[in-house]
Amino acid sequence: MSDANLAGQNGIVFNIQRYSVHDGAGIRTVVFLKGCPLRCRWCSNPESQERAPELAYNKKKCLGRTLCGSCQAVCPHGALTDGENDKIACRRAHCQRCFSCVADCPSTALHILGKTMTVAEVMKVVATDSAFYFRSGGGLTISGGEPLMQSGFVTALLREAKRHRIDVTIETCGYADWAALAEVAGQLNRIIFDIKSLDAAKHRFYTGASNALILDNFMKLRETFPGLDILIRTPVIPGFNDSPDEIHAIRDFIGRFARVRYELLPYHRLGQPKYTFLGRDYPLGDRLLPEGKMAELSAVLQPPQFTTTTG
Ligand code: SF4
Ligand code: SF4
């Protein structure tokens, strides 16, 4: 779908999470948009990466071919075959994403990740909790994926939220066209901006893209919007950036700029089952953060002109 279509009133959303307290100030509703230019190996929302809606299959919920099997009968492309233990198997290469099978699946083992929503539909959900926002200092956070891949839709959402006097934040990986970022930033109360590593080669290996555009965008953002509240976040990933040298380098870089807060986010593997639902392998394998690692890295952030969250 082109930005021309999205620039009006439609966007592709994969989740709307109410009552979040981790994505900006106060109680917030987080709208997650599909599509991301990066392919971070630890991504906890793999369903966010592709822009188009996708078919997910949760084998545990499948009732089995003997009892059901209705999806096999409706699939026009032979994508649903006989799997082990009477379950079905999904041949991803054959699936044309017509989603005919989803309506026929009584257990929701087959389901769609992502749907097209209008600004009005999203805002109806967001506005439901307005009273909580005003009492807690919360509001709307637009996340992803990378929300700036649907910048026309984001701009329209922000405009509506402002009209309702709702505080607005976006979470961005920073890998975006500067014009789109600047247009959106001008409407925000705050931006949450990821800086994952200053090591260009490692960044490319672990995320699929260089960090040059991200760092450049951050510097332009600080310069162009000196009053904007910027929170930099670094997800701490085992084997990638979980060393004091890595965190020190980021801290020194952002320490050159005024009015920037900083948080470390601990790695988790909560998104791993979703890779299975999408028929994908989890790229980071079974790595874990060593015990005490977050405390060790937090010590790097002294003196405390930075706000740190170590989970
Ligand atoms: S989405 Fe369509 S093509 Fe894909 S498995 Fe379902 S019915 Fe078959
Ligand atoms: S329709 Fe759903 S429950 Fe039935 S066999 Fe297919 S995946 Fe399993």
UniProtKB/TrEMBL annotation:
<dbReference type="GO" id="GO:0051539">
    <property type="term" value="F:4 iron, 4 sulfur cluster binding"/>
</dbReference>
<keyword id="KW-0949">S-adenosyl-L-methionine</keyword>
<feature type="domain" description="4Fe-4S ferredoxin-type">
    <location>
        <begin position="53"/>
        <end position="85"/>
    </location>
</feature>
<comment type="similarity">
    <text>Belongs to the organic radical-activating enzymes family.</text>
</comment>
<keyword id="KW-0560">Oxidoreductase</keyword>
<feature type="domain" description="4Fe-4S ferredoxin-type">
    <location>
        <begin position="86"/>
        <end position="115"/>
    </location>
</feature>
<dbReference type="InterPro" id="IPR007197">
    <property type="entry name" value="rSAM"/>
</dbReference>
<feature type="domain" description="Radical SAM core">
    <location>
        <begin position="22"/>
        <end position="304"/>
    </location>
</feature>
<dbReference type="InterPro" id="IPR058240">
    <property type="entry name" value="rSAM_sf"/>
</dbReference>
<dbReference type="Pfam" id="PF04055">
    <property type="entry name" value="Radical_SAM"/>
</dbReference>
<keyword id="KW-0004">4Fe-4S</keyword>
<keyword id="KW-0408">Iron</keyword>
<keyword id="KW-0456">Lyase</keyword>
<dbReference type="Pfam" id="PF13237">
    <property type="entry name" value="Fer4_10"/>
</dbReference>
<keyword id="KW-0411">Iron-sulfur</keyword>
<keyword id="KW-0670">Pyruvate</keyword>
<dbReference type="InterPro" id="IPR034457">
    <property type="entry name" value="Organic_radical-activating"/>
</dbReference>
<protein>
    <submittedName>
        <fullName>Pyruvate formate lyase activating enzyme</fullName>
    </submittedName>
</protein>
<dbReference type="InterPro" id="IPR017896">
    <property type="entry name" value="4Fe4S_Fe-S-bd"/>
</dbReference>
<dbReference type="InterPro" id="IPR040074">
    <property type="entry name" value="BssD/PflA/YjjW"/>
</dbReference>
<dbReference type="InterPro" id="IPR012839">
    <property type="entry name" value="Organic_radical_activase"/>
</dbReference>
<dbReference type="InterPro" id="IPR013785">
    <property type="entry name" value="Aldolase_TIM"/>
</dbReference>
<dbReference type="InterPro" id="IPR001989">
    <property type="entry name" value="Radical_activat_CS"/>
</dbReference>
<dbReference type="GO" id="GO:0016829">
    <property type="term" value="F:lyase activity"/>
</dbReference>
<dbReference type="GO" id="GO:0046872">
    <property type="term" value="F:metal ion binding"/>
</dbReference>
<keyword id="KW-0479">Metal-binding</keyword>
<dbReference type="GO" id="GO:0016491">
    <property type="term" value="F:oxidoreductase activity"/>
</dbReference>
